[in-house]
């Protein structure tokens, strides 16, 4: 990756780089502004370059590692830290199982058995694939089901809680408030008022 002198100087001063060069096998072809990159890539790239600039006077090997990661990001190479996860068939099977069994207890052991993995390997792979641990995913799906039932039905909160796999109305209210910032009854009233 070719970096102009302004970029190297700006990373030493902890400033954002002004521009980068598009890199091909033949070399740089045109300047690219960081603002033109997708937000996630731009922020990650900026962070990597800032870290490289911080380490430039202390640890040359660390600078190489940060620049290699930035190069891989720009070339869309997979980062070895983020490889792995569940196979598509495993993700589909787990998602379907969770949706079909939201009203009952869902154990991590059952989900791991569906994917033919050990519980620890399944948990790590699940987090890589879905971005949340299995318990957090199931809780999120239960809250989504509760939202749907609150909007579409006039059932009491106790019944909705049981249909979503919660122990009781208090359990639903506590988890719902943690996830949305409001109670189920206020969510239902606000939705009814909006219609």
Descriptive tags:
about 200 residues, mainly alpha, two-stranded antiparallel sheet, 10 helices, 2 strands, about 60% helix, about 5% strand, disordered N terminus
Tell me what you see in this structure.
The protein has helices at 5-12, 39-55, 60-74, 88-100, 108-114, 119-130, 134-152, 157-163, 169-180, 184-194; strands at residues 19-24, 27-33. It is mostly helical and 195 residues long. The protein has a two-stranded antiparallel ribbon. Strand 1 (19-24) and strand 2 (27-33) form a beta hairpin. The protein starts with a helix and ends with a helix. The model is unreliable at 1-30 (pLDDT under 50).
Order the strands across the largest sheet as they lie in space.
Answer: 1-2
Distance between the termini: 56 Å
Number of helices: 10
Question: What Rg, in angstroms, do the CA atoms define?
Answer: 24 Å
**Element-by-element helix/strand order:** HEEHHHHHHHHH
Q: What is the general shape?
A: elongated
Helicity, in percent? Answer: 55-70%
The tally of strands reads 2
Low-confidence stretches: 1-30
């Amino acid at each position: 990756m070719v970096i102009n002198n302004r970029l190297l100087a700006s990373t030493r001063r902890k400033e954002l780089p002004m521009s980068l060069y598009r890199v091909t096998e033949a070399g740089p072809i045109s300047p690219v502004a960081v603002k033109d990159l997708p937000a996630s890539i731009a922020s990650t790239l900026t962070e990597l370059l800032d870290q490289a600039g911080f380490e430039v006077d202390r640890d040359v090997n660390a600078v190489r590692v940060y620049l290699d990661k930035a190069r891989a990001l720009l070339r869309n190479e997979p980062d070895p830290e983020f490889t792995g996860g569940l196979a598509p068939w495993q993700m589909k099977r787990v998602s379907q199982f969770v949706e079909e069994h939201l009203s009952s207890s869902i154990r991590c052991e059952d989900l791991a058995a569906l994917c033919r993995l050990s519980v620890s390997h399944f948990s790590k792979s699940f987090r890589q694939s879905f971005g949340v641990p299995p318990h957090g995913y199931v809780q999120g799906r239960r809250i989504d089901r509760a939202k749907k039932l609150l909007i579409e039905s006039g059932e009491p909160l106790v019944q909705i809680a049981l249909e979503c796999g919660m122990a009781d109305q208090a359990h639903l209210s506590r988890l719902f408030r943690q996830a949305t910032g409001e109670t189920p009854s206020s969510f239902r009233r606000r939705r009814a008022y909006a219609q």
